[in-house]
Structures are given as C-alpha cells and as structure tokens.
C-alpha cells in the first residue's frame, strides 16, 4: 500500500498544477490519484481541482476525471453539482466520444439531485446521430432504472426503447432488448409481437456472438401461430445448429425445441443433429467447457440417451482431467449404460475405483454397484471387483467399498459370506467415521450369516469411547440387532455399550440408549421387531429432533430456573429416589386395573401412619405450585411444540412421549376414579388434613 506521505504529495501536486496544457504530466498525476483512490485513500480534497480540469479536451484525462467524480457523487453532491453544467454542455459536443462519456457520467451519478439531469441527457442521447452515443444512452437508461424504479415508465423512456429495437445498429438493438427486460421485470419482461420477432430474426446474422445468445434466449417467449411461419423461422435458425461456437449451437438447439415441441419426429432429428456436433467438444482440452456440455446432455437424456450410447468412449476420463470433471464423467456413464458397452464401462470403472481422489473412487464404485443391479449378468464380474478391492490395503478404497456394499442387498448374493469374512481384514485399515458406520451396518444386517460377527463387533466396543456420536449410534443399533442373533455372546457387549452411551456427554445419544433399553424392558419381541424394521436413519432422525428440543430447553431460562428449584427441593428428590427404587409399579398398575373395589388399599391407608409426614411435606412444599404456574405461563413450551410440529421427525419423538404419557395417565385416571367412588377415603382425607 502506498505511503501516506506519498499520497499527500500526489494530492498536493495535483492542487498546485498550473500548466493544463501539459497533457502527459496531467495523465501521470491523475493515474497516481486513481491508484490512491483504488487503494482506499480519500481524495476528495482534490475535487475542486478536478472540476476545473474538466475543460481539458484530452479523452484520457476526461475519462479519469469522470471516474473520480462518479465515486463521490453520493457523499459530496454539492461539489459534483459544480461539474454538472460542464457535463450538460459536453452532451452537445461535436465529438461523439465526448457526448457519450458525458451521458454515461451523468447517468451514473448516484444522488437524487442529478436524476433529472440524467433523464434529460439519456432521452437526448437516444436520438443522437452517433451509434456510440445511442448505445451509451440505452445503457444509461438502465442505470437510471436501478437508481429509481419506475422513472423510465413515468418519462416515456420505455416507448423510446421499444423504438430503438428497430435501430440500424445491432448493438443498440440488443442493448434496448436487455434494458427493456430489466425495466419490465415485474410485468414479465419485454413483450414480443410478430413484427418485433421477425425483425430480430432478420438481424441475427449481423449480431455479435453475445447478442445472438441473448436474442435466442428472448425469442423463446414467442410462439408462431401458423406452421408455415414456424418452418420459415426454422430455416433461418438451421445453420446455427452446427455453429462452430458451441454456446450458440446449444442456445439455438433449445430455441428449436421450443418451436417443435408439438412435433415429436422433428424433435428427435433436431436432437441427433445437434448432439452429433456438440459431442465432439467433450474431446477438447477445456475442462470447464466439457463440464458444461455434459450438464447440457444430462438435461435431455430421456430423449437422447440412445444417441449418446455409441459415443460413450468420448466420455472416458483423461489422466489430466481435474477431479471434479472425472466425477462428472463417471456419474454420466450411468445414463449411457447398455448391453453393448457395459463390459467396457465396467473395465473403465475398475480402473478409477482405485483413484487417489476419494470422490472419484466412490463415484466409480457406485457405477459398478448400479451396473450389478441393472445388468444381472455382470453380477459375478462386479463381485470379483469388490472382492479384489476389499483385499487392498488402501484406506479410502476399502471405506468406499463398504459404503457402496451397505446399499446393496447382499442376502441374495452368493458372495455375501465372502464379503463378510473380509471385514476383519478391513477393520485395521478403516480410519474415518463413514467407513466404521458402513461396516457396522453390514454387521447388523447380515450378522446372522456371518458367525464371527460378534467378535468383530467386540473389537469396536473396546474402542467405543473414542468414537464420535454418529459411530456410537450405529454401534448401539448394531449391538441391538446382534443381540437377537447371538443373545448369549452379545449380552455382555450390549450392556457395555448401553453403559457407554448413557454415560456419554451427548444427551441425544443418552436418549436413544434409554429408548432402546425401554424397548427391551417392555417387550422383547416388540424390541426385536422394532429394531429389525428400523434403519439407522431413524436413529439419526431421532437424534436431530432430540437435539432440536435440547437447544430450545437450553435457551429457555424459565425451565432452567424450574430445574434448579427441583434440584434444591429435597422432598421431591426423596420421592424421585423412592420411585426409582420401587420396582412394583407395574404390579400395582395391574392390580388397579383388575381391582375396582379398592378395599385392600382402603384398609392399608387406615393402618398406614406414614402418610401424615408425607402429607405435611407436600403441604409445606411450595415449589410444586410455582412450578405449575411457571409451566402455564411459559410461552417457550408452545414455541417448542410448534417447532416440533414443523420438524420432519416429530412423529418419532411423539411416539416415545405418547407411550410414557399413556402409561402414567392410565394409572392416574384409575386411581382418581376409584378414589371418587370410594366414600370411605373421604374420612381418611379429613384425618390427614387435621394431622
């Protein structure tokens, strides 16, 4: 960055400039001023001198002066206003370059003070005899529209721009179409009638490549009403289907499809003719262009798949291709697979499956898996490839193999046992979480086939505390499944993983462990059925929803105060401990459902004197009342409920809550009804209140 002393010296030199005829010296000073301005220096102290230099007739000097003035039009409008008279005079200068620069500068002044001057100069420039001035004036109208929406409609500029579409200069024509499309965005853009459309078609050959591209895009708004008119237009467009500029060929192709969408036979021929020309671009050395061309082909694969099948060799990856292009080419191969090229494509994918780039390797393996499913006769070859790769010692290759294999139904494969037997070898080479999760999914899904699966799982559990939460969730799910295959062997492992998950700092992982444990306690058959049907994705969805609830609870200060009060309340803690130690709740619940007389309970209540101290504690304990009030007043719970309803995983968390809620409510309602029916308890209640 320039030194502050140098900046001051440059500005001082500009202000002390006394010889305006020395053009080279003035250029040198202004170039330094512009350099300082570009680097962030404030050069507004030189504005008065810059205004005085506007009379200079050198175009380079004028461009530099106009550029600096435009930068300070918003912050220093009073100083810039001094230059406005000079600029308005230069809008009528004999030199069209000066007129164009003046119009451009006034229209770019970003202050409402200069808006009227900009409108006046732009309208005058649209009628200028010079094509350069008209081009600049049209673009100036776009600048005015950006500064004040609706100003062009109010001053009739839109109608003048429509007239400029018929301008003899092709650049003025295209600029007018572009600016009209911007100004009329809310109205749907420019309106094309038959006369305007045919005028544009007649001017296509005179336009620049950029102008041709934009006009092809805009002309898709027009639909010919008669077939003869449509075929006349297609004859005009036909040479551009095989244009040496591929962008023009692609845009022309899309315009062709727009016109022939009601003629399927013509559509097929247009696709074949265009694709035969564009497919040669894939062999070019420009990776960005090749990437765009492949994306273009993907849009029309339903209509053109059979055309590109014979060109599959052109989509092979080159050694010098960047990784993103290799992935794009490999993914595109799935669209052109057929009986004739499947063997060659498999050989190609086997080559890239060991690529040093992980993304390229994974894409190649996915294509092999897709080929195995879509072409069953290649199953043996695909399994051989997977077997060879699993025996390798490359970490990311083994990981990618496992990630792909977990998505294939191996139960019907003759090689399932062979794949599973290699897991012990693979374990030592897996370094990332995705590989560990994939291996655990395979063990859980096919543990009944592989007898050594529990011992592989045991190696995981030994190091479970060092794994991430995602791996622990997969490990817990796998242990649950393995427990039903080998209960005697896996009982101790399941207990250990429950202990690890419950003691983990992640509350979501704790909740998942509690959920699985409650399933095992409630009904072992239901737990087995639920675990076999659910996938690990359900666990991850539960994990996300629980974390969402946890975040809301952590942000809710009123709930934290309730939690602190609950911790300080000794009576509640003692009741909680008694409830945790009391294992007879389920038997009491069964008795309550079967026994409606409550006679035995009534006798016990008469004889039991320990109720009085509990009753006293409950009457003295005021924390319960204010907890209830806080819960009623707490609006954050309603927001949590709304968020949960918006959450995709709301059903899963609701299922767990409803089970617990239904169990507790059934006990409360049963006791409440029996207490209301049993009049003998009223006397006990009176005694308790008096004691």
UniProtKB/TrEMBL annotation:
Q: Which residues form a coiled coil?
A: none
Q: Identify one Gene Ontology CC term for this UniProt entry.
A: membrane coat
Localization annotation: Endomembrane system
List GO molecular-function terms, semicolon-separated. Answer: clathrin binding
User: Cross-referenced InterPro entries, in alphabetical order?
Assistant: AP_beta, AP_complex_bsu_1_2_4, ARM-like, ARM-type_fold, Clathrin/coatomer_adapt-like_N
Concerning its family, UniProt says:
Belongs to the adaptor complexes large subunit family.
What's the protein name?
Answer: AP complex subunit beta
Organism the protein comes from: Mytilus coruscus
């Amino acid at each position: 960055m320039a030194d502050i002393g140098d900046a001051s010296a440059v500005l001082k030199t500009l202000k002390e400039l006394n010889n305006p005829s020395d053009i080279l010296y003035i250029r040198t000073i202004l170039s330094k001023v512009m350099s300082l301005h570009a680097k962030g220096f404030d050069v507004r102290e030189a504005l008065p001198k810059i205004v005085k230099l506007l009379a200079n007739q050198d175009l380079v000097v004028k461009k530099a002066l106009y550029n600096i003035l435009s930068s300070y039009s918003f912050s220093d409008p009073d100083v810039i206003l001094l230059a406005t008279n000079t600029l308005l005079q230069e809008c009528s200068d004999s030199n069209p370059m000066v007129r164009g620069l003046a119009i451009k500068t006034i229209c770019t002044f970003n202050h409402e003070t200069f808006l009227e001057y900009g409108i006046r100069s732009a309208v005058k420039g649209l009628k200028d005899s010079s094509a350069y001035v008209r081009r600049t004036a049209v673009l100036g109208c776009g600048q005015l529209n950006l500064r004040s929406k609706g100003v062009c409609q109010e001053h009739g500029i839109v109608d003048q721009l429509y007239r400029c579409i018929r301008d003899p200069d092709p650049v003025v024509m295209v600029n007018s179409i572009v600016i009209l499309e911007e100004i009329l965005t809310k109205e749907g853009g420019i309106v094309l009638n038959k006369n305007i459309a045919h005028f544009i078609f007649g001017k296509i050959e005179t336009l620049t490549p950029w102008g041709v591209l934009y006009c092809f895009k805009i002309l898709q708004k027009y639909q010919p009403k008669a077939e003869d008119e449509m075929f006349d237009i297609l004859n005009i467009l036909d040479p551009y289907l095989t244009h040496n500029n591929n962008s023009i060929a692609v845009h022309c192709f899309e315009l062709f499809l727009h016109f022939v969408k009601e003629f399927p036979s013509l559509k097929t021929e247009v696709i074949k003719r265009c694709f035969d020309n564009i497919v040669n671009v894939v062999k070019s050395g420009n990776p960005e262009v090749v990437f765009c061309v492949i994306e273009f082909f993907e849009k029309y694969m339903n209509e053109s798949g059979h055309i590109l099948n014979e060109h599959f060799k052109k989509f092979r990856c080159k050694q010098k291709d960047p990784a993103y292009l290799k992935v794009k080419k490999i993914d595109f191969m799935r669209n052109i697979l057929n009986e004739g090229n499947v063997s060659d494509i498999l050989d190609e994918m086997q080559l890239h499956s060991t690529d040093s780039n992980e993304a390229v390797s994974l894409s190649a393996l996915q294509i092999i898996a897709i080929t195995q499913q879509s072409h069953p006769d290649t199953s043996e070859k695909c399994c051989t490839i997977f077997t060879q790769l699993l025996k390798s010692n490359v970490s990311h290759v083994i990981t990618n193999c496992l990630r792909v294999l977990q998505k294939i139904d191996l139960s019907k494969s003759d090689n399932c046992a062979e794949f599973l037997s290699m897991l012990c070898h693979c374990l030592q080479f897996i370094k990332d979480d995705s590989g560990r999760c994939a291996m655990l999914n395979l063990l859980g899904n096919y543990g009944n086939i592989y007898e050594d699966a529990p011992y592989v799982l045991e190696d995981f559990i030994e190091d479970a505390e060092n794994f991430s939460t995602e791996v622990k969730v997969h490990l817990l799910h796998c242990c649950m499944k393995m427990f039903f295959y080998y209960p005697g062997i896996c009982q101790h492992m399941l207990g250990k993983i429950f202990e690890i998950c419950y003691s983990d700092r992640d509350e979501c992982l704790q909740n998942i462990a509690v959920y699985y444990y409650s399933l095992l306690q409630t009904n072992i058959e239901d737990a087995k059925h639920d675990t076999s049907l659910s996938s690990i994705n359900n666990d991850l969805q539960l994990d996300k929803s629980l974390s969402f609830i946890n975040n809301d609870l952590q942000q809710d200060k009123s709930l934290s105060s309730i939690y602190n009060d609950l911790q300080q309340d000794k009576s509640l803690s003692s009741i909680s401990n008694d409830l945790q130690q009391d294992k007879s709740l389920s038997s009491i619940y069964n008795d309550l459902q079967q026994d409606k007389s409550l006679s035995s309970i009534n006798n016990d209540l008469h004889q039991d004197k320990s109720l009085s101290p509990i009753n006293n504690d409950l009457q003295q304990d005021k924390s319960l009342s204010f907890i209830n009030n806080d819960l009623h007043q707490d609006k954050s719970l309603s927001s949590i409920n709304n968020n949960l309803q918006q959450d995709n995983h709301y059903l899963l968390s609701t299922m767990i809550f409803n089970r617990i809620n239904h169990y507790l409510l059934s006990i409360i309602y049963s006791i409440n009804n029996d207490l209301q029916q049993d009049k003998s308890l009223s006397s006990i209640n009176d005694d308790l209140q008096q004691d």
